[in-house]
Amino acid sequence: MPATIAVITGDIIASRRLGPAERLSAVLDHSLARLASRFDAVSERYRGDGFQLVLPQAWQGVTAAVLLRAELIRHSRPRQRWDARLAIAIGHDDQWRNDSRIAEAGSAPFVASGQVLDALDGDHHLALRLTSGDSPCLALLMRHLDAMLDGWSPAAAEAIAEFLCHAESQQALATRLGISQPAVHKRLRTAHWPLLQETLSYLERRLKEESEAP
User: Fold this and answer.
1) How far apart are the first and last CA of the chain?
2) Which residues have a Cβ under 8 Å from the Cβ of 214 and sit 6 or more positions away?
3) What is the pLDDT of residues 117-135, one digit of tens each?
4) pTM listed for this prediction
5) Dihedral sign, CA of 83, 80, 147, 199?
6) Helix (H, G, I), strand (E, B) or coil at 94
7) Among 5, 48, 85, 138, which one has the highest count of C-beta atoms within 10 angstroms of its own C-beta?
């Protein structure tokens, strides 16, 4: 069966108006490294604010994108919102290995991910394409997910990021963040965590089916 990968292509929103640039760059590097560890992924930065991330388990692509945006938003500075436009493409690539160079890749998922990012307008920051064919239902679901993330505060994003990385109770998360359990509950409620969790679970199942298709 052909290998199926997820390719995430992205850039920082309005990066030229944000600062300090060194701090934002460091946060992006840290976030990509965290995702690489969490999803056994490979990432590469490009000059300026562009980057790509490749996941060998394609069904984790949307969850990884949500975590990346959560990591950026949580570190936003006062009166600045740090966020990214992300385009996810799911497709077959028999040649990809974790020691491959992203800059040299040119298979369908890489091409599609770049095309989707170029097509994103100013009001949309998250999109998904299956190289096997369009899925209007998935596209609509991604728009709902995008709108949910756009409403996150840094505090809500922090709670979501930690919850996605650690399977633990709200009390354990409160201890990790140094806040009370009711405060964690409030942050998760503000971020619509139950709905987000159900949405990501559905998308992971749907994309796993896509990955296993011949």
Assistant:
1) 6
2) 1, 2
3) 999 988 899 999 999 887 8
4) 0.93
5) positive
6) coil
7) 5
